[in-house]
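re: ur question from earlier - yeah i can do the single chain one, its not a big deal. heres the input i used so u can compare w yours
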Amino acid sequence: MVTECTTDPLRRTSLKQKLLIRRGNCDPITVKELDAGPPQPDPSGLCRGYGEARWGSAAQSFGLYFQRLAVLPDGSGVIFEVTSRWFPLPAVRRLPEEGFFFVRADGRGLRRLAGPASRVQANDDEFFPVSPDGLSIALTDLGPDREGHDAHQIFRLDPRSGDRRQLTHHSDPVCCANFLNSRTILFHMPPGGPAFTVKTDGKRPEKELPFLILPGGGRVVSQFEVTGARPGSLYVGFPDRPAVNGGSVSEVFLLDGKHLLQLSDFGRQDTDAFGSFVTRGRVLFPASVNRGENLHEICQIFSVEMLGTHLRQVTHLPWDGRPSTPGCIFYVGGPACNISHLFLDPLTGAVLFPSSCDPLGANPFGEQLFAMRLDGTGLRQLTNLRGMTTDPDGTIHVELPGPAAYTFPRGD
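and the output i got, formated as tokens:
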């Protein structure tokens, strides 16, 4: 998704968004464009705040039209959500069609799926979790609890038929849904609380999972995805251990069957902050530790073998002079350049990520999308958007990508 806004010297803002699909080295295909209409009063400085964040996915937190999205595992289609419910400008232009949409990867076959848009704002939830077989999407929406009162619930959406089914009936908020396999969804209630699983057929009650407690006070944070018997990566929080960069310690672990192996020992709160991958015998994860090559402790990508050996820093993104605390954990207000997500190409092994750093000297004003090989070589910039610039008369221009989604390996 690309968001573009302009604020004139009278503090009136115009805004538009579009969804694009890019396959390989082909030119991007524009799927849908949305326009908020003529310039509107912007007393809160929406456009400036968005530009200064330099984080494209903040468009969701600001309540702009496009919300969550997902790419089907085989790359054949895209699911996305559109709503004006959360739009922050006062004179918002209502959309003729809102809700969930499906489009094929070649940009054809755009259609609206049955049912309204979610009544829960996306915020930091950028993506719809997709089952490994591509036949189910998990989403959070308001639905009746066991007493008939509206509360946050987990729903299953069928991307083929548009059928939507409520799977949970809790009174407390639920969050962080993810697929353990094509028939089982893992979620938390409330955030940081007990973990549950529920089947996608909706015919069986939720099952509470016991916390896995490790020596030294560590607690496994069950926000990870495992497909089949292959090893998977996850992070473990140690709530009783203060981190050197604020908060409590989290580390990345490898889960292989019933075996759990600690791969990092950085003592920081942001290790594996936005996910990790196991591929070709190595685990890739984000961290801001300095092992001699990251003096300013900004967010970088690291790689380690599955037995915890041969740890190395894969990226060497440059520091831009801004405060680097708290490393890989994004906060609105202008942190140091950052990496906001991590994707892996299941066929080529290429790594894709959005970043506001400027490693190639072509990205001084905001986030762009990058790709590289697993070893960090072949780094190239995939987008060339404007970022945030200011004209001599004070007019502000912002153009940022995000959120972005990518396919992932199939399995079950």
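Residues 1-113+384-412 form one domain. not sure if urs matches, ping me
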